[in-house]
Structure formats: C-alpha cells, structure tokens
Amino acid sequence: MFKSIVLPVALLGAATVAVADEGQWQPHQLPQLKSELKRIGITIPADKLNDLGKHPMSAIVSLGGCSASFVSPDGLVVTNHHCAYGAIQRNSTPEKNYIVNGFLAKTRAEELPGGPNTLVYVTEKVENVTERVLKGLSPAMSGRERHELVESRIKALIAECETDKAYRCSVPAFHRGLEYYRIKQLMIRDVRLVHAPSDRIGNFGGDIDNYEWPRQTGDYSFLRAYVGRDGRPADPSPDNVPYKSKDFLVVSAEGLKNGDPILLAGYPGRTSRYKLPSEIRFARDVDFPAKVATITADLSVIAAATHGNPASDVRYASVAKSLNNVLKKTQGLLDGFARKDIAAIKDVQDAEFRAWYKQSGNGNGGRTLLADLDAVIAADMAQSRQEAAWNEATHSDLLKSARTLYRLALERQKPDAQREAGYQERDLSFIKARLTRLEQSFVAGVDEARFNAALQRYARIDARLRPQGLDPLLPALTSLPDMVKASELSDTAKRLAWIGRDADAFRKSNDPFIQLAVRLHDTGLALEHRRNDIDGNLERVIPQYMSAVIAWKKSQGKPVYPDANSTLRVTYGTVAPYSPRDGLVKGPFSTVEGITEKATSKDPFIVPASLTEAVKAKRYGVFKDPVLNTVPVNFLSSADTTGGNSGSAVMNKRGELVGLNFDSTYESITKDWYFDSDITRAIHVDIRYMLWVMKEVDQADNLLKEMTIKYPKK
Questions:
Q1: Interatomic CA distance for residues 469 and 533, integer angstroms
Q2: Is residue 309 part of a domain?
Q3: Cα–Cα distance measured from residue 573 to residue 20, given in angstroms and rounded to the nearest whole number
C-alpha cells in the first residue's frame, strides 16, 4: 500500500533558498524569503509584505480576471487598457468610438459606467480551512461522492463567510487539492471608467506585437470604485461616492535601470508547473493543436461575418481580441514545446522523484500511487476530449444563454445549499450581468455563422470522441437561420425575463433555442457527472502525489509554491535583458522613438499625431531617462508571471509603483509549464511613459494631480 507523506501545513509555507526568480508566492510565505528579497535589493520588510492590511498589499486588488491597484485615496484604480477593454467597448458607438479616440473624464460626473461585469475585489482575509474541507473523507467513496462532499463543504464555508453581503468569498484548492484556503474579498460593484488612451497607444502593435519584444504599448487605463454613502458596496447609483481606499500606491517617476530589483503583486490565473509528463504530451500533441485549429476557424468566421459592418465590428472587438490573445499564447506554447522538450525534462525529473521516493521507505516504491495516478490522468484526458467535442457542438451565445436559464430553473427547485455552484442565490447577479453584457458583444447573424461553422467542425470529430447520444439531438444546419429568426433570446429584456420562470415553462416554450437547451440537458448533465467522478478521483490521488513531491523538492532546497489559481501572489525579480537565441541579446527597455519608427498608415501601427509631435519635439521633461536620454515605454524583468497578472503593480524596492505588467516574451510562454530563468521575461509598461502620455498627449492633468507622484530629484 502507498504510504502517504503528509507534511504539516506550516512546512508547506516554508521555503529554503529559491532558484533564480521563480515562484508565485502566497503572501504568508514571504517571511521565509527574507534572504532572497534582501539579496536582490528589496528594502520592504518581508514581514510587512505578508500582511494584507498593510502597505503595499492593501492597495493590490483584483478585477476578476485581471489585476489592479489603488493609486489615490478616492478609489482610483490603475490597470491595463486591455483589462478595461470591456468597459471601453461598452460605452463606444460608431459615433463615439472610445476604442479609437480614447476617453478622459475631466470631472467625476463625466465618468462612465463600467457595466455589470466590471467589479473590484479587495482581499481582506485569507485563512487555511484544509481540515474543514478534507476531514474524515472515506477512501471507499466513489470519485463523484468525494467530489460532491468536498463541494458541499466548500459551499458551507462560503455561506458562513458571506453572511455580510458586501463580501464575496471563495475556497480555492492549492497544490492540486492538498490545501484549501478561504478568501474573503470586499466586492465593489459600482465601477466607472475614468480614463483610457486611444487603442493606438493602449494597444499599439495589436496582435502582431502580442508576446513580442521590443514592445511599445501604453497598456494602461483608469477606473474608479464607488460605494454607497455609508461606505459599503452598493448597486450603481448617481448617489454613490468614491470608495475611500484603505491604502494606495505612491507612483514613482524616478524610474529603473538595468539590474534594479522589482516586486510584482497580482492575481495570476493558472499555471501547470507540477503536471506529469503524460499531461504535457497530451497538451502538446492533442489538446493545444485542436484548440489552435478551433480558435483560428472561429476568428475567420467572425471576421467574415462582421466585414463591412462597423456596428458588428465594434460589438465583436472584445471577443476577437480575447480569442486572438488565447490563440497566440496557445501557439506560443506549442512553439515552446517544439523548441525545448519539456516533456523530456519532466521525464528526467519524474525518474529522479521515483528513485527518491523508493529510497524514502514508502511501501512498494510508490507503485500503487503511480498506477493510480496514471489511471486517473488517462481518464481525465479522455474526458477532456469529449468535453472539447461538446464545446464545439454547443458553440452559440444564444444556446449558452438558453442552457444557463434552463439550468437555473432546475437548480432553483432545490434548497440553496444543494444547488450546483454557479447557480446559487449568490450567483444570480453574475448570471444577470452575463446575460445583460451579451447585448454589447452579440449580433444574431454572427452567432448563427459561428454556430454553423462549429457544428461542421463537430461533425468532423471522430465519433468515438463525441459524447454518447449527442449527435441525434443537434439541429440540422439548414434549420439554423429559422431558429435564430424565431428566437426571442436575442432581445435582452426578453432574455432576462426568463430568470425566475419554472422548469415547466421552459419545457413548454416554443423558442427553438430553449427547446434545444431542454433537449441537450440530460446529455450535458451526464457529461458533468462523469467530470465530477474524475475530478473526485484526481482530488483523492494527486494531493498524495503532491505531498511527496513537496517533500522531495524540500530535500533538494528547491522552491515550493503552489500553482497559480487566481489568488493573490507576489513575485520578484530584476530588470533584465535576455537572449532568445544564439548571438542575439535584447535590451530591457524600449523607447518612444521605437513608436515613431514602427509607425505606418495602417492599424495596428497608426500613431496619434499629438504623440508623434511630442516625440519629434522631444518634450520629455521630467520623464526622460538619464541613461536612455528619452522616455522609456516598456521594460523587461525576470519576474514570474502568467495570465491574470495583467495589470499587476510592478513596484520598486520601496514598494512604489513603477510599472504595470501586461505581457511576456514569446519565448517565455512555456513558463506556465516550466520556468526557464534564462529566457523567461515579463513585459511591463514603464510608469514614466504612462505619465508622459497623460501629460503630453491626453492632458489628463486632473488625474496627475490626484495621484501622489514622486518625481526625480533635479
């Protein structure tokens, strides 16, 4: 039998000497990194960095998919342009195109509503609840039974935390299910757009330059958080007042130079550093190639369906931008896997681990554990292929809306605590927000074209990889135009009116998309139950494996941090050049001259005339770097980042804001799976460029006055 290595929770947070700048650290781990932080030159005490109630961590916030930070006591938030893109698009029309022209509110009254999906989350408390989640789980349970019991405990922990409705709580897993932490966040739901530069600044270079270096992108924007007059979160209202943030970051225009230390804090999305070799090969050989093919095809359909229609083009701008970003990242992962055989590297590590494990006195040399691992991972991969097929077969926003509404009606027949996560009363506002937001990114004819193409792709999938019983339930391609025309779900008011109706009303509906949702439900639910069974088995086996891996890594003095999971993390590094290939070294800074050198008369390299004029006149003022003799635009660091870190505060050694994270180099994309310190570089907006554009191009003097800015000494 497998003898589990279970480490005390306190040890899981302890790290010995870290390697390079690898690690997305939980704040409570930072005191264990004192020597590392001191080594690179960070002067903020590590004991202060682990306190969420103290500067600078108290100023770091989440936007629910992006990161941000407070930069004034009046709730002013700075983040990336692409993180505020939904709010910019929501307020744009062909006549008032804030995407192209930018937006600046000179007064609070001119600030625009961010929309129901624009939220600010302030993390106030993190507590370890592992024992309450995992205590007394029986090995005899099926995977589904185990998963559902764990989920019920998590829901109870969340309900206990959310007695005050001002807060949103979550209980994510760490180390692939070895630990669980309950996270309590103040959720501010009145968030307004304050300032965004033209996308000819905020998205300069577009998808062509995405993940490339050098970059010259001013990827920044400003939002403001509002609350009721009592200081508590409230629904959007003209009566609301700016949120008085407990803390905010001082902005430093003093700048950085090559080799300077930086701290980066934010909410990284997902990494896969502890995946097994078989999981890497599945991603490399099966999952990612299919994903690239699907997204490429979908983007082509969107481009064709919106061509020549400015209104449709604006509505799908955010959708296409998001898809392009995922596409380039996925293709970058494939290119990275081709450039460096990460699976082979993992093979070596896996063999070393197995040898260590066998010598550690664990019965059968861990054969039971490893056999269980192979079995559950194989089941997971097979299920993933069926889920990918299901996603193709249901690739329609109208259908997704209908399925959400019908599922909500079914779940509301149950007591709230027994409902599926995502369909409880706490989730109702998010469901309404998604269904409302659709009107900003939906055109019936485009949705029909996307659904038609996806059904054709589904038909080409090997029948053995499709969910059982799904084929006869799907609509004929010839019926799609009539279905779209007959559906009332394209209308936002009518779509929202279905919230609260009982399941029987859905079954009696004549709406073709609601009929399709009802018809597909049982097959989709069977797929979901199978996923729960597999996840339960993964959650039973992988934590045992991770416990052993942690013990093995600690025996080597290597860093032990959990994979990113959209929770608050801190990483560190230095401003650093890199060599993507032999004979080529790329410096750590780009400059405004690079913008004018790249400028053309075509997107995405059109430059606003006011910016070109300021560069030609060399109106650099206090923002000129003394070494570069110009204004730096972007810079590189060795910090460990991933998706979700967009908008993360980049701070100097004193905790002052000197940049915003927004991208990484193309060669770095595989860092989600394997951190290579030689080529891993994150790309940041230099705060001096942001301030320079605000002053010289957009005349955002009101915001420059609102922020506390530390200028270079003369």
A1: 19
A2: yes
A3: 8
Q: CA geometry: angle at 292 spanning 287 and 295, to 5°?
A: 120
Give pLDDT, residue 398: 98
β-sheet bridge partners, residue 187: 121
Tell me if 684 sits within 8 A of 78, measured CB to CB: no
Q: Is residue 528 part of a domain?
A: yes
- Rounded distance between C-alpha atoms, residue 592 and residue 597, angstroms: 9
Residue positions annotated with a catalytic role: 82, 219, 646
H or E element, residue 377: helix 367-393
Please state, in angstroms and rounded to a whole number, the distance separating the CA atoms of residues 655 and 262: 9
Query: 668, 687, 688: which is closest to 677 by C-alpha?
Result: 668
Q: How many domains does the chain have?
A: 1
Measured distance CA(379)–CA(402) in Å, rounded: 30
> Mean pLDDT across the stretch 24-33?
93
Distance CA 372, CA 358 (A): 16
Q: Rounded to an integer, what distance in angstroms lies between the CA atom of residue 496 and that of residue 612?
A: 47
Assess whether pLDDT exceeds 80 at residue 714: no
State phi, psi for 700 to the nearest 5 degrees.
-85, 55
User: Is a pLDDT exceeding 60 seen at residue 3?
Assistant: no
Can you tell me the distance from the alpha carbon of 348 to that of 274, in angstroms, rounded to the nearest whole number?
A: 14
pTM of the full structure: 0.91
3-state SS track over 286-342? HHHHHHHHHHHHHHHHHHHHHCCCHHHHHHCHHHHHHHHHHHHHHHHHHHHHHHCCH
Any idea what DSSP says for residue 652? -
Cis upstream peptide for 56 (omega within 30°) = yes
How many Å apart are CA 129 and CA 271, to the nearest integer?
22
pLDDT score of 349 more than 50: yes
Look at residue 667 and give its three-state secondary structure. helix
**In sequence order, which ranges of 412-443 are alpha helices (DSSP H)?**
428-437
Report if residue 81 sits inside a domain.
no
Does 2 score more than 50 pLDDT?
Answer: no
In the chain the first and final C-alpha atoms are separated, in Å, by 71
- Cα–Cα separations (whole angstroms), residue 409 to 397, 420, 501: 18, 12, 6
Helix axes 609-616, 687-696, angle to 10 degrees: 110
Identify whether the C-beta of residue 142 lies closer than 8 Å to the C-beta of residue 118: no
Check if the beta carbon of residue 415 is closer than 8 Å to that of residue 487. no
Contacts of 53 (CB under 8 A, 6+ apart): 124, 246
Burial of 309 (C-beta count, 10 Å sphere; 0-12/13-18/19+)? middle
Which phi and psi (to 5°) does residue 146 adopt?
-65, -50
Quote the CA–CA distance of 637 and 589 in Å, as a whole number.
Answer: 10
Residues in contact with 194: Cβ distance below 8 Å, sequence separation at least 6, in sequence order = 76, 104, 105, 111, 221, 222, 223, 224, 703
Range of the domain at 502: 277-544
Among 602, 573, 599, which residue's Cα sits nearest to residue 664?
Answer: 573
Neighbours of 707 (CB within 10 A): 18
**Domain assignment of residue 418, yes or no:** yes
